[in-house]
UniProtKB/TrEMBL annotation:
The lineage of its organism: Eukaryota, Fungi, Dikarya, Ascomycota, Pezizomycotina. One of its GO terms (cellular component) is mediator complex. Its main location: nucleus. Component of the Mediator complex. Keywords: Activator, Nucleus, Transcription, Transcription regulation. Belongs to the Mediator complex subunit 18 family. It comes from Saxophila tyrrhenica. This is Mediator of RNA polymerase II transcription subunit 18. One of its GO terms (biological process) is regulation of transcription by RNA polymerase II. It holds the Pfam family Med18. PANTHER family: MEDIATOR OF RNA POLYMERASE II TRANSCRIPTION SUBUNIT 18 (PTHR13321:SF2), MEDIATOR OF RNA POLYMERASE II TRANSCRIPTION, SUBUNIT 18 (PTHR13321). GO terms for molecular function: transcription coregulator activity. Component of the Mediator complex, a coactivator involved in the regulated transcription of nearly all RNA polymerase II-dependent genes. Mediator functions as a bridge to convey information from gene-specific regulatory proteins to the basal RNA polymerase II transcription machinery. Mediator is recruited to promoters by direct interactions with regulatory proteins and serves as a scaffold for the assembly of a functional preinitiation complex with RNA polymerase II and the general transcription factors.
């Protein structure tokens, strides 16, 4: 899969106003969402498939096990690649998301030398959809690690944790996801739709392209 992305940031003082702006544009009420993320350091690389994308990460990387307690308690392995280089109108990033059966979850347990647990956090906010554009406005909330097995624990449906950003700001992400990003016409169409959405928000919410290396999942020095 390939994600086309634009980002913005909004202060807590403007949060409700921005939600109302998005309600007006999408003609839908904000849908609350909650994601639990377990962050693991990759200790060794699996064999690289001959069909792997040319830009696939060749260094060890941080990978996330995620689940959405409001929708499902099953774990998904999220593996983003380094965003494509060059000056672009949008961020282009290949992402793999795979639902993990119990047998594959074993690799994330201590002592198997595949992954090392680093930390956990929650992503909490609201989601909108406009055509093929998915818009999220959320904050990262770090969570303390307990002594229990996080893979087996029941996830809460609400969290009341201080945000990682001490200012309390929210991150806005606008994303168009393509199952096949190799088709030029499809990518051009997706880019056009995302930019048109961003253009409609100018002056109220300024969506922009961040430094692509801020989305680099690779482990430094690995």
């Amino acid at each position: 899969m390939q994600d086309l992305l634009l980002f913005s940031q909004v202060s807590p003082a403007r949060h409700k106003q921005v939600l109302q702006i998005l309600v007006g544009i999408t003609a839908a009420q904000p849908a609350p969402f909650l994601e639990q993320h377990l962050v693991f350091e990759q200790l060794r690389l699996p064999p690289v498939s001959k069909k792997a994308p040319a830009n696939q990460t060749t260094r060890r990387a941080y990978q996330h096990l995620t689940r959405q307690p409001l929708e499902s308690n099953s774990w998904t392995l999220r593996k983003p690649e380094v965003p494509e280089p060059g000056v672009k109108q949008v961020i282009t990033q290949s992402v793999s998301e795979v639902s993990l059966p119990e047998a594959d979850l074993e690799k994330f347990r201590p002592g198997l030398e595949w992954y090392k647990f680093i930390n956990q956090f929650y992503l909490q906010g609201h989601r909108f959809v406009q055509g093929n554009v998915v818009i999220t406005i959320s904050r990262v909330c770090p969570a303390e690690t307990t002594d229990g097995d996080l893979l087996e624990s029941e996830a809460p449906t609400t969290v009341n944790l201080p945000p990682l950003d001490p200012s309390g700001s929210y991150v806005i992400e606008a994303c168009v996801r393509m199952e096949d990003g190799s088709t030029t016409a499809l990518r051009d169409q997706a880019t056009k739709e995302l930019l048109a959405f961003a253009d409609g928000l100018k002056g109220a919410i300024d969506l922009r392209v961040p430094d692509r290396l801020a989305l680099d999942p690779r482990i430094k020095g690995a």
